[in-house]
Amino acid sequence: MSIVLASSSPRRRELLERAGVVFEVVVSPAEEIHDAGMKPHLLCELNATLKAAAVAETRPDATVIGSDTLVFIDDMPLGKPADMDQAREMLRRLSGRTHQVCTGVCVIHPGGGKNVFHDLTDVTFRQLDDATIENYFSKVNPLDKAGAYGIQECGEMIVSEISGSFENVMGLPVAKVVEALE
Ligand SMILES: Cc1cn([C@H]2C[C@H](O)[C@@H](COP(=O)(O)OP(=O)(O)OP(=O)(O)O)O2)c(=O)[nH]c1=O
């Protein structure tokens, strides 16, 4: 059975490799939907499904994995920041508080059967002053990451506590994905 990861994210690739899964990567051409009116976990699942379905169309022989990660606080989703000002704004908003990271996953099997699910992790941030935020951005590029941070890159500078799966925050709840592949 061939497995395709429908993602451009190097973090997702690394997580799936580490789990011992053999797969190819095909970047999905699907456009993400950003609808702030939708419940965040449904939005993640929908975007994961759009990403997987666009690749499954061209690879009906394969099992295709699509995923989408959103950070949200007070039910407001934060995707990837458009620029550095928006990135600063996002970290100021997350400072000193607990937020949720949701990764939606869609696994489409040959024949069209689907597993769609999500995982949630609570992440608590330290109090961040502007100097700490600038220092963090001098080490980590926030622009390709939901919520403008990467827990796997100098996470200790900004995160004080997490409750739930670390891999889910990085972009893929690997244990649940492996279960869906079995
Ligand atoms: C919160 C958080 C997000 N991220 C990353 C994971 C995802 O790559 C990205 C969220 O954007 P996504 O739109 O979920 O994914 P992507 O555009 O990078 O890749 P693709 O759609 O092709 O699968 O943020 C981290 O690496 N660390 C973190 O701590």
Helical segment tally? Answer: 6
* Main sheet overview: 7 strands, mixed
CATH architecture: Alpha-Beta Complex
Bound molecules: thymidine-5'-triphosphate
Task: Describe it.
This is dTTP/UTP pyrophosphatase. Its cofactor is a divalent metal cation. Keywords: Cytoplasm, Hydrolase, Nucleotide metabolism. The protein is α/β, with parallel strands linked by helices and 182 residues long. The protein has one domain: Alpha-Beta Complex (Maf protein). It contains 6 helices and 7 strands; from the N terminus they run E-H-E-H-E-E-H-E-E-H-E-H-H. Strands 1, 2, 3, 4, 5, 6 and 7 form a 7-stranded mixed β-sheet that branches. A hairpin with a 5-residue loop joins strand 5 and strand 6. The chain starts with a strand and ends with a helix. Thymidine-5'-triphosphate binds next to helix 1, strand 3 and helix 5. The site of thymidine-5'-triphosphate has 26 residues, from helix 1, strand 3 and helix 5.
Please summarize what this structure is.
With 182 residues, the chain is of the alpha/beta class.
Give structural attributes.
33% helix, 182 residues, alpha/beta, seven-stranded mixed beta sheet, single chain, binds thymidine-5'-triphosphate, 6 helices, Maf protein, 7 strands, elongated
Topology, pairings included?
Layout: E1 3-5, H1 10-18, E2 24-25, H2 40-56, E3 63-73, E4 76-78, H3 84-94, E5 98-108, E6 114-125, H4 130-139, E7 159-163, H5 166-170, H6 174-181
Parallel strand pairs: 1-2, 1-3
Antiparallel strand pairs: 3-4, 3-5, 5-6, 6-7
Bound molecules: thymidine-5'-triphosphate (TTP).
Thymidine-5'-triphosphate (TTP) is lined by residues 7-9, 11-12, 27-28, 32, 51, 67-69, 71, 80, 101, 144-147, 149-152, 169-171.
Keywords: Cytoplasm, Hydrolase, Nucleotide metabolism
Active site: 68 (proton acceptor)
Family: Belongs to the Maf family. YhdE subfamily.
